[in-house]
Design brief:
With 146 residues, the protein is an all-alpha fold. It is built from seven helices and no strands. 23% of the residues are buried. Bound molecules: fe (ii) ion (2 copies). The site of one fe (ii) ion (FE2) has 6 residues, from helix 1, helix 2 and helix 5.
């Protein structure tokens, strides 16, 4: 995929990257590749937490001024995602993460991503001229730290 040049593209690009990691994880489950699962999980966990943080720091505060209820619903979904991540982290550590638990989590993430792309990312895109560079720079820096 091309290098993203707008903040919403950057975030949507990151959704795709995380989704790809998830499908690698699914393949690892299918192949029963026990050594790959914790490595892929750690990459996904780190990337996902950085993504949530980037949105909370660089997109949601300004979006909340326009649509407070949608912004707080998205934040609540982030909290639910982190709670699930914490639980799944423990399962990975204990080597008891199962494919069906990972698949249920993926459903949660996909629903969140779809909701976000419809409203939040569109809103960010519309601000691409005015505030886009600061949104893009900040989010890029945060995503690069993962
Ligand atoms: Fe999000
Ligand atoms: Fe997102």
């Amino acid at each position: 995929m091309d290098t993203p040049t707008t903040p919403s593209m950057l975030l949507a690009h990151d959704h795709l990257r995380l989704e790809r990691l998830f499908s690698e994880l699914r393949d690892a489950f299918e192949a029963d590749a026990r050594e790959d699962i914790p490595l892929l999980w750690t990459e996904l966990d780190t990337g996902l937490r950085a993504h949530l943080e980037a949105e909370e720091k660089h997109a949601l505060p300004r979006f909340a001024e326009t649509d407070p209820s949608e912004a707080s619903a998205l934040r609540a979904e982030h909290d639910a995602i982190r709670k699930q991540l914490d639980e799944l982290d423990v399962m990975v550590d204990l080597h008891v993460l199962r494919a069906d638990a990972a698949a249920a989590f993926l459903d949660l993430l996909q629903a969140h991503a779809a909701r976000e792309e419809k409203l939040l990312y569109r809103w960010v895109e519309e601000r691409a001229d005015a505030e886009g560079e600061s949104l893009l720079g900040g989010a890029r820096e945060r995503l690069a730290r993962r």
